[in-house]
Specification:
With 221 residues, the protein is an alpha+beta fold. 50% of the residues lie in helices and 7% in strands. A 4-stranded mixed beta sheet has the order 2-1-3-4.
Length: 221
Amino acid sequence: MTSADVRDPELPGLLLTTERDALIPLLRSRPDADFALPTAGCPGWTVRDVLAHCSSALTRVVERRFEKGVFSPECNDRDIAERADWTNARVVDELERGMTEAGPAIAKAGGVLDMVAVGEWVHGGDVRDVLGEPGAYAGPGLPHALALLARITREQGRLPLHADLDDVDEPLTLGAVSGERTPARFIGDAATLVRLYAGRPVAGRTFELAGAEAVELNVFG
């Protein structure tokens, strides 16, 4: 086992607070009309829907409310509907609290909730993407997100992939090397790699992917 395989229980919380510090001021600076914009990363959801999903999911983590079917599409839709009469500001306030308080709960969970932090960070990218803001699927949280993604994909036994990233100094290895399959190869920027693993649109982006189909990389599909 290498140091990269050892879980850092504080890393998901660090990713969330890093994203909080970047995203919350941005959201509070945007007009209400922006919250009604449709997102490309989550078809059928507006910016507000994405944020309501994020805030409710983190509140569930903080309050340890994990009933049967939690985080299913049906559960997510109910959580969003429960916040339908909230102001946008109230949704953002709940999101800020969740990003602040969920880290310790995720740390104590032993790893089973680590992907929640990655998902929240990806949703921050969904919002930046539709708002035309820089740093979608990148930004200050990127090193933490890549470290989590590399470890989680190894633990899940996903297909091995060697990534040579244009904007990261060291190559990144994702997935589990089993000897049964030659590692796939990715060449491109880190944000595009994140888009592939998150099942987000990559049309118009320049990259090379050999030895795997894009759909095989999606950790949220």
